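Protein modeling request. Please complete all fields; requests missing the sequence field cannot be processed.
Requester role: graduate student
Desired output: 3D structure, C-alpha cell encoding
Chains: 1
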Amino acid sequence: MAFRFSLLNILRLRGALERQEEQKLILLAGDVARLRSTIESLDEGQLLEQCAALKQLAEGSVGAELQFANLCLTAYDRARKQRMGELQVAEARRLEQMQAYREARQKRETLDGLRERQETAYILESTRREQQRADELFLLRMFCEGSDQNLPSGAARSAQSGTL
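Delivered output (164 residues):
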C-alpha cells in the first residue's frame, strides 16, 4: 500500500494560498518599482529643466522666463511629494504583503514538513515489515530444512511429495 497523507488537500490549499500571496506581492513590488521609476523620471526632467534655465540665465533671460521656471519647479516639487507619498503607501502595502506571504509560506512549510516526517515514518515501518517477513521466511525455511534432515531419507521424500 502506497503512502497516503491524510492532510494532502489542506497542504494543496496552503500551497495555493502561498502562490496567491506571492502573486499579490509581485504586483505590489511592481507598483513600488513603477513609482520609483516615475520619481526618477521626474528628477531627470527637473535636472534637464534646471540646466536649460541656467543656460538661459547665463545668456540673459527675462523675468517672465524666470517666473515660468519657478512655476515649473513648484509643480515639480508638488508632483514629487505626491509620488513620494504614493511610494510610501505602496512600500507599506508591499511590506504588509511580504509578511502575509511569509506567514502563508510558513504554514505550507509546516504541513509539508509534517508530510515528509509521516512519509519517512511510513517508509521506515514498511521497510521493517518487509525485513520481518524476510526474516520469518528465512526461519521457516531453516525450520523446514531442519525437519527434513531429522526424518529418514524415504520419509523425507514422501513428506516432500505430500505422501507418507
